Amino acid sequence: MEETKVNPLSLQIDPALFEPATDEEKRQADVMSESTTFFKDGMRKLMKNPLAVGSIIVLLLVVLTITIAPLVVPYTYSDIIRVNGKRDRGNKNLSAFEYSEKEQEFIDQGGKVFPHIMGTDSLGRDYFIRVVYGARISLTVGLFASILVLIIGVIYGSIAGYAGGRADLIMMRIVDIIYSLPDMLIIILLATVLQPILENTSNPLINALGTNMICIFIVFGLLYWVGMARLVRGQILTIKNNDYVLAARSIGAKPAHIIRKHIIPNCISVIIITTALQIPSAIFTESFLSFIGMGVNAPMPSLGSLANSAREGLQTYPMQLVYPAVLIVLIVLAFNLLGDGLRDAFDPKLRSK
Amino acid sequence: MKVPQSAVAGRPACSNPRHILMKGVFQIMTRYVVKRILLAIVSVLVICAITFFAMNAIPGGPFNSEKALSEATKAVLMERYNLDKPVPVQFVLYMRNLLHGDFGVSLKTGRDISGTLFSCFKVSARLGATAAVCAVACGIVLGSLAALFRNRLIDRVIVFFTTLFTAMPSFVFATFLMLVFCITLKWLPVWDASNKSLILPVIALMAYPMAYVTRLTKTSMLDSLGQDYIRTARAKGVPMVKVIFKHALRNALIPVITYVGPMLAYILTGSLVVENIFTIGGLGQQFVKSISNRDYPMIMATTIFLAVVMVICNLLSDIAYKIVDPRITLD
Fold first, then answer.
1. Cβ(A313)–Cβ(A120) under 8 Å?
2. How buried is A50 (Cβ within 10 angstroms: 0-12 exposed, 13-18 middle, 19+ buried)?
């Protein structure tokens, strides 16, 4: 064979020097884990956390019950139960699955009465449906109040953080002042004041929701957003110095566009976690207000007002307190644990550790 | 303000680097304290203004609802209570009265509010202070135990109960306590005005703060147990008990100080319901009663009073925090 002159510096590779990899070697070279997105990775971590999964299941069960129950149970939260269209005086304070005498008579005659799953209250209303509506109210208030806090806090915080300078200084002093106000007292105060003012209006929206609900929302909108605003501002201050923000600015992107497209997506996980932890605190506040008689308007029940009215018959009918109280604790606990789980799974600061 | 001086002054004036450093810290500290006090004053003013103008916005004057008064009587009353003057003037007058300790007159009882307020506050302060002290003491002990016996049974039990307590509103806990101890077990008589014992109200009030302090202590204790100086102390033969009390716990307690302000605020608002449930004639019960009575001057006075107490507590706990740990960045 004619010997070719090999340049020692040549990059040409002689394939004969190599041998094909075995299957085992190929397997070793495989990427160890599949590539995932941030969201998928977080969800995987969340699903591994038994407490978080448990609270998701509990919350789903609660939501399912309060959506379906009013369709199945033939009673309403405000109507006193009637037997066959007639007034029944013996149906007050029944215990769970008990029937009053008249109802029993009616059943014996072949009629059908839907069982009182949690008995009845002191006026003869079905307690189960009242607890269901109470949970509906509490969850709704919690959810919408948190969304309100989210919107105001994110907008305010991102403006302050992005603008910087004097605008930031003034905006953050306002936040400081609101932050140092004792929120519960101001809530009570505003609720007392807004009630007589709102009572006199004929706005259909206010009448539908009840003045107290509006008060709760107004108060949340006025006071509770400051924590979120501080958080978002802090995030933005760190993010806005990144090169991609500078790049976006240098090609002429407008501040609103930069905040929407570059900054908010980068701190969205922190925002979501805070919102999840805001819900139980809103439920707490609502039940507290209902308990001292400033919550939703009667006869609309909320878990707090149910617990409050159960105090009168505490010695004889303790179960009327136990049902709403356990439900509040369950809901708040589930949201707390879910929020903690979300933080463990999605918070980038924890993840780097 | 005397607080920072006591922490920094009292050292012999010398020109070593430490002294210069302390001087710098002192300056920053003074600026911080002044800033915080200014902020607190503004907060108090804002609270007063909100309260005053909110109460003025309620439709109907104080003399409209009761028996119809003759125009002349009304005019005399209006003049006596300065209601004939423009609202800003009324505000200034109200503020001046507040500074002199005059909170006005209750609409329901016709009595001087400041008397009621202070006698009620004594009751509330006793309850609140007991609850606060118990909460901090129990919380620190439980938190340290949980940190020292990490992942053992005792830690699990403590974590379980603290999680449960943070999810339980004080009114739920208070009624449950009453249900269990007074009605089911009959260990204690059912509460009425004659019952002077504070056991159950204190437990009900301290549950949430205690759980929070426990959590705080646990995290910071775990943090400080992992520090190098703990290992050094152990390595040179200091007994474990001494290491825990002298090195770990002292540093672990710093974050607890920040929680004292919010904790007192929580206890004050928590007492609104707890006092009602256990019928303790304190400020909380008075407040809720005045709300249901729509006794506006009383609501105003109580709000301002409680708010000022809370602002002062927050201020003190913030300043104490900066004094205890000078490493903390003084914004």
1. no
2. exposed
**Chain B residues closer than 8 Å to A280 by CB:** 167
Q: Are B301 and B117 in contact (CB under 8 A)?
A: yes
Cβ within 8 Å of residue B260, ≥6 positions away: B132, B136, B313, B317, B320
Q: What is the pTM of this model?
A: 0.78
Residue A31 pLDDT exceeds 70 = no
User: Token pair of A346, please?
Assistant: 């999605």
Report the b/e string of B105-119 with b at 16+ CB within 10 A: bbbeeeeebbebbee
Q: Are B45 and A181 in contact (CB under 8 A)?
A: no
Contact A277, A223 (CB under 8 A): no
Q: Is the pLDDT of residue B1 over 60?
A: no
Q: Choose among B55, B164, B287: nearest Cβ to A193.
A: B55
Lookup: tokens for A323? 């049902």
Helices (H), chain B: 3-8, 17-57, 71-80, 87-99, 113-148, 153-166, 170-177, 199-225, 228-235, 240-242, 249-252, 254-277, 283-293, 296-324
Could you tell me the pLDDT band of residue B194, with boundaries at 50, 70 and 90?
low
The DSSP element (H or E) to which A82 belongs, if any, is strand A82-83
Cα separation, A342 vs A335, in Å, equals 10
Query: Which residue of chain B has the CA closest to A277?
Result: B167
User: Is A141 an 8 Å CB contact of chain B?
Assistant: no
By CB neighbour count within 10 A (0-12 exposed, 13-18 middle, 19+ buried), where does B72 fall? exposed
B105 beta partners: B112
- d(Cα A103, Cα A89) in Å, to the nearest integer? 11
Distances in Å between the alpha carbon of A48 and those of A54, A56, A334, A349, B152? 11, 12, 16, 19, 22
Cα-atom radius of gyration of chain B, to the nearest Å? 25
Each residue's pLDDT tens digit, A119-131: 777 777 888 888 8
Q: Helices B153-166 and B199-225: crossing angle, nearest 10°?
A: 120
- Closest Cα in chain B, distance from residue A333 (Å): 5
- Of the pLDDT bands very low, low, confident and very high (cuts 50, 70, 90), residue A348 is low
- DSSP string of B215-249, one letter each residue: HHHHHHHHHHHTSHHHHHHHHTT--HHHIIIIIIH
DSSP 8-state symbol, A297: P
DSSP state of B181: I
A304 contacts A138 by C-beta, under 8 angstroms = yes
Output the pLDDT for position A3: 56
Suggest the residue from A168, A173, A193 to mutate for an interface test with chain B (most B CBs closer than 10 A).
Answer: A193
Helix (H) or strand (E) holding A133: helix A127-163
User: Comparing C-alpha atoms, which of B136, B123, B120, B140 is closest to residue B263?
Assistant: B136
What's the one-letter identity of residue B251?
Answer: N
pLDDT of residue A251: 92
- Write out pLDDT tens, residues B214-253: 999 998 898 888 888 888 988 999 888 888 888 888 888 8
| Residue B44: how many other CB atoms lie within 10 Å | 19
* Residue tagged 């007192």 (tokens): B264
Q: Which residues of B touch A292 (CB under 8 A)?
A: 272-273, 276, 288, 291
Given an 8 Å threshold on Cβ–Cβ distance, is B163 in contact with A333?
yes
Q: Decide if B268 contacts B70 (C-beta within 8 A).
A: no
